[in-house]
Amino acid sequence: MLPVLILLTFLLPLGAGAEEIIGGHEVKSHSRPYMAFIASTDTNRSKNFCGGFLIQYKFVLTAAHCREISMIVILGAHNISAQERTQQIIPVEKAIPHPAYNPMDHTNDIMLLKLKRKAKKTKSVRILNLPMRHARLKPGVLCHVAGWGLMSLNATKRPALLQEAELIIQEDHECKNVFRHYSETTEICAGDPKKIQDIFQGDSGGPLVCDNKAYGVVSYGKRRRITSGIFTKVVYFLPWISRKMKLL
């Protein structure tokens, strides 16, 4: 486990870079054992935070835009501002963003993290299954997203406790009207523009969970108004994910 002073360096108020959960609710403690909190340091020594999720006991899936020069993963957390006995703090050995990731239009915003050591399976640390290769989500399906992100558009401090919100899968054409770079091939649109309490964005890199499987990775949304959020479509990238884990 990292020394207390090093850990507290990462447990600072969230910066402006991560996406938000708006209108969510606290989940039952440790009921989302696949969740990962990713703390990192950039070239300017600024602290950044993202979400992610455990897909094998040595691999975490997150968003490519979360990549920084130094990264650690905290598993088994509910209160990220406390040193819970359930937490496993593991440095990242290697970050593998998708080679076609484009930060300008957010395309292919997915990244695999190889941990320096294998996580220990406990009641608070478990993997999240991925969908089958040909699985599809229909508009209207109810999904969930969780994270430790900001809880309102004007918030400056993130919650310490894990939050979760419900989202509805939207029609692709509706999201194309809002996001000009939206790709139905590689992305999923979820939210509900008619209900503010249902419009949420989880921490960047967190999972869009539908039927207990990770169908999406939180990628981006509108910063100054509440709309649906855009998720990288996991199904499309399954061959790449599988190939990379076999090689590492």
TrEMBL record:
Keywords: Disulfide bond, Hydrolase, Protease, Serine protease, Signal, Zymogen. It comes from the Eukaryota. This is RCG23461. Residues 21-246 form the Peptidase S1 domain. The keyword Transcription does not apply. Residues 1-18 form the signal peptide. GO terms for biological process: proteolysis. The keyword Protease applies. GO terms for molecular function: serine-type endopeptidase activity.
